[in-house]
Amino acid sequence: MTTRLSGATPAAVSEKRVIGNVLRGSIGNLVEWYDWYAYAAFTTYFAKSFFPTSDTTAAFLGTAAVFAVGFLMRPLGGWMLGRFADRFGRRSALVLSVTLMAGGSLLIAVTPSYHTIGIAAPILLLTARLIQGLSVGGEYSTSATYLSEVATPGKRGFYSSFQYVTLYGGQLLALGLQLILQAILTEQQLTSWGWRIAFVVGTFAALTVMWLRRGMDESESYRREAAETPGERGTLRALIKYPKEIALVVGLTLGGTVGFYTFATYSQKFLENTAHIPRRQVTIVLFCAILVAAVLQPVFGRLSDRIGRRPLLLFFGIGGTLLTVPLMTVMGSTRNPVGAFFLVLAGLVIVAGYTSINAIVKAELFPTKIRAIGVGLPYALTVAIFGGTAELIAQALKSAGHETVFFWYVAGCVLVSLIVYGTMRETSKTSELEKR
């Protein structure tokens, strides 16, 4: 129950309630993505613990494969937790997703190395990533749905953009902790056991959020829909009645997810392994670039409330298609950390045209009764196939001596999405969210 402050108008009280729900939903999203990206951030330290080899690229390839396999669970998570959210509520699904993430992080933290338990080590690592993939698959769809439904009309782009603010924030926390550990531990200590600290922190943070999320308000849109259509919510039979919307989610996501994972995660390994910039400098470069990108998300989101969603998507599509190859080419040859920062930032600014509003655009495509599963399942399938394999493809092409082919692959994926952006309708004024 919300207590009305003396002298406060109903509109002010309502806005405070919206902000409170967005904050509680977002902090959970922050921790979820911290746990997810801790794996990517600390790969360079634990790769050889689970995949012992003298070839650094081969070890990275092993952990990249596990990273990619973790994505295969995201469609299952999008379906299972999306269905759960549509049938039993957004709040309950968000509590469940963060509980699963806590379990996955704990398993990584306590799993012994390959030298101790042999093949069981990479198997347990894979199991943990599968659990985390299930969690993240459900978290995206449910948090995107929840933030879009509780947001103030006319500000949905702004409030929904905080999903990627917290997504980037989770990555920043992982990189920030890495910088702290790099400052207080030696390289040998980090490689031997220090990387486990990141997953212990993630476990306790997720358990704390699990408790916090229990106090969130359920969205009003869900409560109304639950009373009107008790037997149709969250079913695949209801979802397949919207084939055009499903196809749009796939097309919207394809280029965006490949571009995002290229500049936000793979660039760390790329700058270290191709540009040969020292590891600590690369961490600082990525931290600073992602910090700026996180700040830009609500700016772009608010802009979409004013001019619409399509102009920002077109900005990403055109920029990503034309500039990915030159940006990656120059990035691979730079030895200057400052130059590397501006190159990574340029890529993230372009990608912000997608990341800042992709959640609200997808939520605006579906009615309330199937919004969580409608957003989650086709999105997670696309991310699993294209986003989750981006780093794996990049590492494989590098190992084969054809690294530059990956640059063209990314640009081609963005081009496919650009075609979708150019032909789709504007969603901000026609959504059921605005009709409520």
TrEMBL record:
The annotated topology with respect to the bilayer is: Multi-pass membrane protein
Question: From the UniProt record, which GO molecular function terms apply?
Answer: symporter activity
| Principal location listed in the UniProt entry | membrane
Transmembrane portions of the chain: 58-81, 93-111, 117-137, 158-181, 193-212, 246-264, 284-300, 312-332, 338-361, 373-394, 406-424
Give the family this protein belongs to, as stated in its UniProt record: Belongs to the major facilitator superfamily. Metabolite:H+ Symporter (MHS) family (TC 2.A.1.6) family.
Q: What does this protein do?
A: May be a proton symporter involved in the uptake of osmolytes such as proline and glycine betaine.
Can you say what this protein is called?
Answer: Putative proline/betaine transporter
Origin species: Amycolatopsis rifamycinica
